[in-house]
Each structure stands twice: as C-alpha cells, then as structure tokens.
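ok so heres the complex, four chains, lmk if somethin looks off
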Amino acid sequence: MDIRELEYFVTVSELKNFTAAAHKLHISQPAISKAIHKLEEELGFQLLDRTQKKVLLTEEGVVFLDLAEDILARMAAAKNTMIEYKNLTRGTFRIAVPPLLGAYVFPQLFADFKKNYPSLEMSVIEDGSSTAVDLVRQEDVHVGLVILPPTLTDLHSHLITSQEIVVCLPTDHPLSRQPFLTFEQLKDEPIILYNEGFVLRRIILDEYAKYGLVPSVALSTNQFQTIKALVAKGVGISFLPKNSIKVVNHVTKIPLHPHLFLEMGLIWKPNKILPLACKAFIDFVNEFEYVK
Amino acid sequence: MDIRELEYFVTVSELKNFTAAAHKLHISQPAISKAIHKLEEELGFQLLDRTQKKVLLTEEGVVFLDLAEDILARMAAAKNTMIEYKNLTRGTFRIAVPPLLGAYVFPQLFADFKKNYPSLEMSVIEDGSSTAVDLVRQEDVHVGLVILPPTLTDLHSHLITSQEIVVCLPTDHPLSRQPFLTFEQLKDEPIILYNEGFVLRRIILDEYAKYGLVPSVALSTNQFQTIKALVAKGVGISFLPKNSIKVVNHVTKIPLHPHLFLEMGLIWKPNKILPLACKAFIDFVNEFEYVK
DNA sequence: CCCGTCAATAACTTATAGTTATCATACCAT
DNA sequence: ATGGTATGATAACTATAAGTTATTGACGGG
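and the predicted structre for the whole thing:
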C-alpha cells in the first residue's frame, strides 16, 4: 500500500472510469487495473464496484477514499514545504553577533540580506567575539559575525571589512596633538577596555605584551557608550575602531604606530552541514561589499 | 518520494545509524543508503549529516522528519481503520423494514445479530414492503426485510419464516363460529387493509381477484393497532398473520380455505457489492432459525 | 597511529510496475 | 432481439528500480 496506489485509486474514484484515469495519469489501463487489484487484495475486500457500466465506490471504498485523499494532501503539503526550504522562501538559522559589530556592521548586512531573502529568519545571539567563536565551535549557532582572532585554524572564515584601531584620548590630554602614538608612549596611561570575552580586549593586551608592557586597566565594561563617555571625562584612554566613533566632544582619535588593524568577518564550522538559509547568508556575505 | 523511503528515513533518524536501521528494517545497509540518497536527490538538499561519526539531522531534516512521521502515522491509522472494516468491528449498512415485520420479526433478528457483531451499525428505514422492494432496487438501502412478493426475479431473496394469514373478525360476527372461511363467504364483508405500498394489501386483493371478486375496502391505514381496534369495533373484517395477533378482546381468528401463507424474508440486489457489514448480516440470517 | 566502525560505491540479482495484445461483458441503439 | 461500442480483466512480456553481496574509504577512539 504505497502512495502511487492511493493516487491511482483516488483518480479512478474521481473519474469513475479506469481508462480515463489511466489517460490522466499517463499510464496504460491495465496498470491501473493491477494497482487497484493489488490494493483490494491487501485490504481483503473491494473498494470499487465494477459490475455495472459505471465504476462505483463500495461503502468501504468511500471510507478509504477519504483517508487516501487526506494522506495524499499531507504528502503534497510536505513536498511543498520542502520546496520552500529549497527555494529559500522558508528557513531559519542562528548567528552570533558581538555588540560592537551588532551596532556598526551587522545592521547594513542584515538589511541588505533581508531585501534579497525576505522570508528567511535569523536568530541573533549577542555575545563577545571570543564567546561567539565558541558558540560556533559547539554548534550553538551556525555562523558568527566576529572580530577575527589572529589564529583560527579549525573554523572557516570570510573577511568582510578591516578597520584601523585608533587611540581615543581626551582632547585636553598632553599627547592629543601627536600625529601618531606608540605603545611605549602610552605605557603609563590607565586604559579602559571591553570585558573578558571580547576579542578587542585580547588584541590590545597582546599588543602591549609585544613590547613587554602591561598596562593598568582602569575599568572594563561591555558598553561601547560607556567607554566613550569615560574617555571624554579623562578617566583613561581607550582603543576603538576608527569608524565606530564619528564625532564625539572632548575625544581625539590618533592612529597608532605601527598601524593596528581589526578584521571583521564571518566564521562557521567546516565539515558541518548548514541550513540552506545559512548557506545563502554566507554566499550573500561573500558577494557583499561593505561600505563604511 | 514514497512511503517506504519515509519509513527508512524516520528509522535512521531515530537510531542515528544507517546499519542499525537496516537491521531493524530487515534489509541491507546499502539499501538504506540508496533510499536516503534518492530522497535527498529529489528534495535537492541533505537531510542527514554524515560527516561526523554519528548521523545527525540537518535543520531541514528535522522539519522533514516531523512531516514524515505525521504521514506515516496517518497511513498506519488508515490501514487500521480498514482492518476494522475487514474484521467486522466497524461498519454500517441500511435496511428497509416494514412496520409489521419491524414489530414481530426484526426485533429478535436484530438483537441476535447485535450479540454477534456489537460494533456494527444498522440504519433502519421503515416503509411498506412494496416500497422497501423499490428502495432495494434503487440502492437506497442495501437489504430489505420484507413480505416476499410472489414474483421477484430481479432480486435475491432468502426466506426467514412463513406465517398463515387468518381472517380477523369481531367475536359476535355471524361467521365467527366457522372452522374456516372462503373468499366466496367473505365477498360482501367490508374489509380493513393496509395502505398502498404494503404487500399484504396487494396479496389480499389479488386473492379476491382470483375468485373474480372485488371487496369493498372500508378503510385503509398503516397502523397495525388501528386495524385490530377497528375489527373489534365491528367496522369490518381484516386479514393478518396468525402470530402477529396474540390475544385481542372481541377479535376471532379463522383460517382461510384454501390456506393462505405469507412469506417473510430478506431481499437484496444481485451483482451489487454490498458493505461487509451487510454481507455479514445476510450470512447471519442464512444461519438464523426464526422462533415464533 | 593503527584498528574498528560505518557509510558509500559498484556490479549484479530480483521483484514489480508498466506495456502491448487480446478477451469478456455490459450497455446502447437499431 | 442483436450487433456494435465502451470498458475492465487477463496473459505474456519488458523495463525499471529496489535490494543484495563484496568492497572501499573515511572518521574517531584506544
């Protein structure tokens, strides 16, 4: 008792004629006869009364027709649903986005993606880039839009944009008139950083360490706005992507020497089958030109 | 995309292992591989992630599993329902029963049948035997429990019981002391009959006609009780099955000469596939011994 | 780092769905 | 009645596809 047999039975029941049903189904009439016989054999009684000229449903046939139609309808609905997934008119995936990128890169990316795939759903998990990387590793999310850590061998990644990290210091700071600054010059300044779990913090500390320096961290937070306000108030200096701060009163941005860049991109787990929606997003990001 | 493929997919999804699923389904492992591949080929994307050690469902696979399980469950339910029809633990049929038989033959028949097939349902249409015969012809009912008309070539029938028709007349009637009566003796008596559509009426009038007589019909009704009451009141005489009237005050029953019998039985249309429940009833009636 | 487990693949076999040709029967028009 | 037409059943055959055995290749645990 398979789907094909049900289809044949339903068609014959509709048309009340084996030959007509055969035509409609583009097969020969004996094929229909055989299939109906097989079905009746399996059930143990007749579904169709062929003693008269017209084919008529038996009482049991009426009951079975109802059940068969329901099954066929559900089968068709299931196929349809899967076609929607295939056509990317249905689908969901999970993405981890740190606050910094959530504020400056993700909105444009998301808006443009939605324009192309309005039916796809994205579930965003906000967390620091380091944590985001782990979420991708553990498969809690399908992709991460993160500040790319320098070494990342076990995950695939795609660079979206790179931004220069600049020193942010109060306008009235003695160093604020320099064309560029070295870590040596900054070694005694108290600094304001993101909390643990944020790649930007790791990168800055690693840079200090390169020169054998250990800065004094005045405060750490995960609020971007807080960092800017604290710098303006003279609590300490900080390091932020050049384009993430437009114009802020009492804050001066000065490039580092040598220049330090922050790479932002998408990461995902290789050898792992992703939702079609997520693949579409990755492909989309590949084509995407990030405009600052 | 057929039922078998869905079954394989659901089993693999449950066991997260192709080989184990093959064992459970009593087929070889490559058969499973092939079926899953065919399914994925048709849908256009993978349902199962086989890159890791364990077989895992993809996001699309999770969705499809849900749909597949629903379809399989409905398929199983449909099969089950049909098995119930086959086992006669489910089923209905329509039967026409005239009031006379509804009162005296049918109750016992029905009660005994129900004892054997408690789950079967009968839909009873009450109408005169003549009408009942037409209902069977038109297939409005599957069987009729009727007074068998003398000639009935186009329908199958089965005799259940035969009863003698006796003359019913008031106890104080001049003829009430006779051991038997002829139609000749009754030719001037006003008679009370069933309405048109009742075989008993037809039979009585035909008997009169055999002797070239036309009786005067005082009144006709379709109420058995009315006939008895009118006879008791002396409105006229009547003719009824011997056993249908037990003891009624002021009514005397006298056999006819020659004896006239009424045959009661089941009729159904040949070359017409009946519901299994109805077949069971006909078979049951075949075995049934009617006790008066 | 090798071994065991497990899915994929290839070549072949079997089962069965489908085909053509033909027959049997019910119904309709003459 | 009665012959013609329409329609389903049957038989013999073919083609498709589901299943089998044998084998390979890849991943992960001890």
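quick notes: Residues 17-19, 29-30, 32-34, 37, 50, 53, 55 of chain A lie near DNA strand D (CB under 10 Å from a C1'). thats all i got rn
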